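Thread: quick sanity check before group meeting

JM: Hey all, I'm pulling together slides for Thursday and realized we never actually wrote out the predicted structure for the chain we discussed last week. Dropping the sequence here so it's in one place. If anyone has concerns about the input, flag it before I start.
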Amino acid sequence: MKKKTLLSALLAVGMLAGCGSTQSDVSSTAAAEATAAATAAAVETAAAAETVSLEGLKVLAPTGAPALSLIPIAKEGEAEITTVDGADALQAAFVAPESEYDVIVAPTNLGTKLAQAEKTGYKLLAVVDWGNLYIVGSDEADLSDESKTLAVFGEEAVPGLVFKAAYGDEVKAQVTWLNSVTDARDAILAGNADAALLAEPAATVVIAKAKENGTELKVISNVEEKWGEGGFPMAGFFVNSETYEENKEKYDAMLETMAAYTEAANADASNVAADIDAVEGGAEFFGVPSSAIVSKCYSRLGLNITKASEAKDEIAKFMELFGVASIDKALAE
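JM (edit): ok, ran it. Output follows.
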């Protein structure tokens, strides 16, 4: 899958500059003009996003990687963002008789299933996270060794379903199913498992903790790569359909700001820790161990802002894991 981000014009600037010297049929003058045009378009897009105020928008998001997609919005402080731990509050917000939030960032499967069944007034406008699952261990060969053990969490939830779909019968190690990522983390750190399925930033924390105890662990398999097509649509940006039209300009500006930030931070995360610390509540607000840990693993969080309309096939494939055969009623157009 080729994900199309909202600020592809920004990426095009660098691409055009590089391509001009390799295509013999394009003169240096033409390449320069194309680069200048792309630069102007990117500047115009960024400027347009900056001039739209997000004041008054109310946003709900789960802690962890999905919440981190909102770093630039939280730092700016215009929109009112509430973060919650777990899915119960998200579920309640989706089905509340009166919609309290303009935007709900939530697991794609949760919101899409409710929207398709017409049990919520929220629609999926964009995917913000394409998966942050990794298998951590000491040796990739352990996954093919029947004498080894692999701790996996969430058998009937996203982690377990994605793991089973991505790996099939490929893993020969003995799989032990656990309830949570915390249980999987504890199992590998205690030596009760040779490898473990973990989500970032937990994977980075485990690797660092094991090293302190004299054990060398590393990422031995990337679940998103095994899934294919650039990962799976783990978390989405759902908008209140009742007020969608009147807020559309704000939503577009918000997503453009998020896209610009994630693209830049995926390439260079050196400013991420300071940006997290600049938000009231810091790491605790986002539900992560520390800003420094996030900075180390940012590029493995799967953050990539993509319009749902550009990823229909990928969303549909993912939703098949949850028995949803169609997504036509779930997307915001």
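AS: nice. The mean pLDDT is 89. The two ends are 21 Å apart (CA to CA).
JM: adding both to the slides.
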